[in-house]
Amino acid sequence: MTSCDDLSHVRLEGEVLRIAISTANNGTSLDFDGVAQGTAALRGLIAGTVPARSVLLVGEGPNFCAGGNVRAFAQAENRGEYLREIAVSLHEFVRVLAATEVPVVAAVHGWAAGAGMSLVCASDISIGGPSTKLRPAYPSIGYTPDGGMSWSLPRIVGIAKARELLLTDAVIGGDEAVRLGVLSRLVGDDEIQDEALRVARTLAAGPTSSYAGIKRLLAQSGQATLSEQLDAETDSISAAAETPAGREGVDAFVEKRRADFAGL
Fold first, then answer.
1. Shared domain check, 219 and 191
2. Whole-structure pTM over 0.90, yes or no?
3. How many whole angstroms separate alpha carbon 119 and alpha carbon 128?
4. Predicted pLDDT of residue 7
5. H/E stretch holding 92
């Protein structure tokens, strides 16, 4: 894949790969055209054929994503098989999103429920507003989590709080979501999209190899002992020193100029 031009839910904005995971259709439920196109584009990014240096997840309706299309669940001839099929599709998207070494930013306006909340938890940085609301939403229809929420949420808020939020199907306002670490920060409701794009563009102009190393270290830290993590940090920082970005960053500091990480 070398272009996003023929994809309706995915486009390149400079070096930012923008993926629409919902639209105004079907009540801003998770859009599986967006999921499939996003998966293809992320694979291209990983393979080096999509020239993006950050990823931006957005919703194109009144919400970031209101969760799964429950009416479609009800209409399925075999609900179990239908849910298995769409979960497999969503989970492939989450897997490639996690494998992406560039930063992932989410613009979280309105509701992020069910799979929408899972994708917020899967992002590196998430920007919300005072009206942003998150909700697991699974118990309300008698379901269990998907999209990695049972893995990511405990790592963000702790196992006890994750248990409470999931079992009580709690509605989490923007301020509380920031306090818990589910959202990174809040801006005005009408600024969410612009600010998330600004953050994504800023990251796209940064030291991509450094970001990749940071994400790898964070990903492995939960399973590593302190000694193992110190060894990993030693290997990572020594490797970073030999990268073009590492050389440019240090040289710029010594020369008292702004580092130029374009293309590095």
1. no
2. yes
3. 13
4. 76
5. helix 79-99
